[in-house]
Design a protein that fits this description.
The chain is mostly helical and 252 residues long. It contains eleven helices and no strands. The chain is 69% helix and 0% strand. Helix 3 runs parallel beside helix 7, helix 3 packs antiparallel against helix 11 and helix 7 packs antiparallel against helix 11. It is globular and about 50 Å long. The two termini are 34 Å apart.
Length: 252
């Protein structure tokens, strides 16, 4: 595995910086996590699948909030015009007609109660800490770093391409309607990643700035990995469910 924390020493061309960012994803994106591998192999229990959907909702719900923080700090109106599409994608025109609603539909299609999911009260503590850290990062780091942290979207279409057909094939309670959230995401993620990558390559013009954007992407990959770590620890073979977290009798 590469040491990305000293990767931009000496400065990189835009082509080499992009290659390095893609290497971060290849090595550290959560498509490599054992929980994801277990999901696409068909080995998750329904309870594990429900726990994944419930906890992931917390992440989905924070995305438009972190994007709003990025918008508030951007002085370029053209940047704001492009970035606000992300909020519209997740919130929809009325707050509940976008991606968050579709994720909630995924969760309820798996048998979860909508109000319980929206309350986030049964989420794992580690999940809440992770999404809070993401919001804090995008609020307090530089605009360039906040934008760079979104570059996990470069790798999102590939993981969706693994997840969706595997879930449809291996879990008889999962339907195309259940997974409607993912229908639009590859196109949206590609559009957003292209914009963010162009922004980062334009503004990361010194070795220090290049290292900052690499570190921001590493941070985001680590965050997504930690969320799956928490799920695996809590709901895996040796259950370690924290007090107050989602808990049903585990079944194959």
């Amino acid at each position: 595995m590469s040491d990305f924390h000293r990767a931009a020493k000496g400065g990189l061309s835009a082509i080499k910086l992009e290659a390095l960012l893609r290497q971060v994803g290849a090595e550290r994106y959560h498509h490599r996590h054992p929980f994801h591998q277990k999901m696409i192999s068909g080995a998750l229990s329904k309870t594990e699948m429900q726990a994944w959907a419930l906890n992931r909702f917390c992440y989905q719900a924070v995305i438009p909030r972190k994007d709003a923080m990025i918008l508030a700090r951007a002085e370029d109106p053209a940047f704001r015009a492009a970035w606000r599409r992300r909020i519209e994608d997740h919130d929809g025109a009325d707050g509940w007609s976008g991606g968050i609603k579709r994720w909630l539909h995924l969760a309820t299609s798996l048998g979860l109660d909508a109000d319980v999911v929206k309350s986030e009260r049964l989420a794992l503590p580690a999940t809440r800490f992770a999404v809070g850290a993401y919001l804090s990062f995008c609020t307090n780091r530089t605009l360039m770093e906040a934008v760079a942290s979104s570059l996990t979207e470069m790798f999102s279409p590939a993981i969706i391409g693994e997840r969706v057909p595997a879930m449809l094939a291996k879990y008889d309670y999962v339907t195309e309607d259940t997974l409607a959230y993912f229908t639009r995401r590859p196109e949206q993620a590609t559009r957003d990643a292209d914009f963010a990558l162009a922004y980062v390559l334009k503004h990361a013009t010194t070795p220090e700035r290049q290292q900052q954007v690499v570190d921001a992407l590493v941070f985001k990959c680590d965050l997504l990995w930690a969320m799956l770590d928490a799920l695996q620890h809590a709901y895996g073979e040796k259950t370690n469910i924290p007090p107050g977290a989602f808990c049903l009798e585990l079944s194959p």
